[in-house]
Specification:
The protein has a domain of 113 residues: Peptide Deformylase (Alpha-Beta Complex). By secondary structure, the chain is an alpha+beta fold. Helix content is 20%, strand content 30%. Bound molecules: nickel (II) ion (NI).
Length: 172
């Protein structure tokens, strides 16, 4: 179990479509653990997807609870997540551990319903909205080989160079 290297754009492995998980075994638990350690080692990430650490499996973690004013479910470990309902559209700013130098404006659904399995193979269904829904949609995109860069309407108007990303590590 370890902090793993994060693949960075334009690594071609980020473009692969991840495979569904079929076995809920020690290997999956290790992957979830590595994902969590890698996310927590990063600068204020609200989510991570297995392909970002080079594992082509449909596993994500999201956690927007560091922004307590937002409605959220705490830390979620989701296997084979699927968005089964969408409502509304909203533009918002996104960053990504795999695109460390930029943020971008991306249109996402405002409210979603997600079906997934937990790391023990138990089914879950969750309603999400706002920033948590955005984080989930961003991570599910990683499972389908998509980055937020692929969702920009215009690279010229919707892509922003990041200046302070590294500085966030120094926060107490
Ligand atoms: Ni990302």
């Amino acid at each position: 179990m370890a902090i793993r290297d994060i693949l960075v754009y334009p690594d071609p492995r980020l473009k692969q479509v991840a495979e569904p998980v079929e076995r809920f075994d020690a290997e999956l638990r290790e992957l979830v653990h590595d994902l969590e350690q890698t996310m927590d080692a990063g600068p204020g990430a609200v989510g991570i997807a297995a392909p970002q650490i080079g594992s082509c499996r449909r596993v994500i973690i999201i956690d927007v609870s560091s922004r307590p004013k937002l409605k959220n479910h705490g830390r979620l470990y989701l296997v084979n997540p699927e968005i089964i309902h969408w409502e509304g559209l909203e533009t918002g700013r996104e960053g990504c551990l795999s695109v460390p130098d930029y943020t971008g404006n991306v249109v996402r659904a405002q409210r979603i319903r997600v079906s997934a399995l937990d790391p023990h193979g138990r089914p879950l269904e969750l309603d999400m909205e706002g920033f948590e829904a955005r984080a989930l949609q961003h991570e599910v995109d990683h499972l389908d080989g998509l980055l937020f860069l692929d969702r920009l309407v215009s690279r010229r108007h919707d892509l922003f160079k990041r200046k302070t990303y590294q500085a966030r590590k120094d926060k107490p």
